[in-house]
Design a protein that fits this description.
The two termini are about 35 Å apart. β8, α11 and β9 form a beta-alpha-beta unit. It is globular, with a radius of gyration of 23 Å. The chain contains 15 helices and eleven strands. The chain is α/β, with parallel strands linked by helices. The protein binds adenosine monophosphate (AMP). Adenosine monophosphate (AMP) binds next to α3.
Length: about 425
Amino acid sequence: MAAGEEGGQAAEPAAVEEPEVAVEEPRSFKDLGVTDVLCEACDQLGWKTPTKIQVEAIPVALQGRDIIGLAETGSGKTGAFALPILQALLDTPQRLFALVLTPTRELAFQISEQFEALGSSIGVHTTTPGRLVDHLENTKGFNLRALKFLVMDEADRILNMDFETEVDKILKVIPRDRKTFLFSATMTKKVQKLQRAALKNPVKCAVSSKYQTVEKLQQYYIFIPSKFKDSYLVYILNELAGNSFMIFCSTCNNTQRTALLLRNLGFTAIPLHGQMSQNKRLGSLNKFKAKARSILLATDVASRGLDIPHVDVVINFDIPTHSKDYIHRVGRTARAGRSGKSITFVTQYDVELFQRIEHLIGKKLPAFPMQEEEVMMLTERVAEAQRFARMELREQGEKKRSRNGDDDDTEEAIGVRNKVAGGKKKKRKAF
Ligand code: AMP
């Protein structure tokens, strides 16, 4: 490694400046300094005017400053960092120009799609490798020494997921002389820690400094006994039939169980969680995106950043243990000016967590109106479907065991892998 390239740490603690741009006035991409070919690309994507975070971040990025971007999910964050990077690439074309780190592969794919769409006329290529540190250490000839931009999207999550060691390794092998953009909808103290380590005099671009959820989102809760959760879920899905739903569960196993349960009751439900193979995960997501399935059941692997425009209702079937995950989960609906609903299930065990969420978002939520008698009429059918679901889960587990942990090729397959194969636990963190 050439001298002077080592070490990603800024010498002095980063002072955070606020940008001078007035965010209210509507402006064009051209006004922000975006070059014609990229303005055309925005136009072709139907982006008529820049979003608030784009108005704030793009001019600052084009001046060559580092950025801490704090913006709501669905705010156009990706464009805010992709456009300045593409513009810089136009000025000085080279290979391995920018590195975007994301906490999940789905998000990486989504971001790469936006880069390719914006950069199609200038022939931009993206790639989404996993295990970057592994490549750095073991792939001959692979290095990031010429890198000009580093982006961390969902930056707080990258840290929360114990990626700190990996991030440190990456920071050590990329040039100090680079631009760094940190983007997240929620900002932790850890991000501030990272900011000191990796940023140089960053400008803070925040379109909402408080934790907020979008205005067109109607948020409700239901307070119910834990043992009737499934029946209440079925009741709500019937009540709101015709909508598309994302249902969040806390574990892979419960995600799969609930998906099986709902299918047994005739719903088109599909699971997405960290114990499925990457292909299955993308397959599930694509089926839901293409509206071939109306219900996506997911763990928090899907709570961040994914842009699925048609989600009408988010259900927190299991309440999130980290309040900030609530913001990310409900951010899957009411995107890009549409309206949406969220319903959070609160059982006798969840009251404290729920109060923390209300405190974080700074408002009291109304109860979702329900006819309790109608829910009770469902319990028998639901109990039968639960029995079937349990049987199916067991069978899938046995199938896995006999296949020695190979991927099942049915979409309902899940990894109960951790429970089989002699109880050996995988080290990889699954959501
Ligand atoms: P993001 O917050 O980056 O996940 O973007 C959310 C969605 O907004 C994506 O579908 C983008 O294509 C879209 N988007 C980004 N910028 C704009 C814009 N200026 N006008 C309209 N849509 C946009």
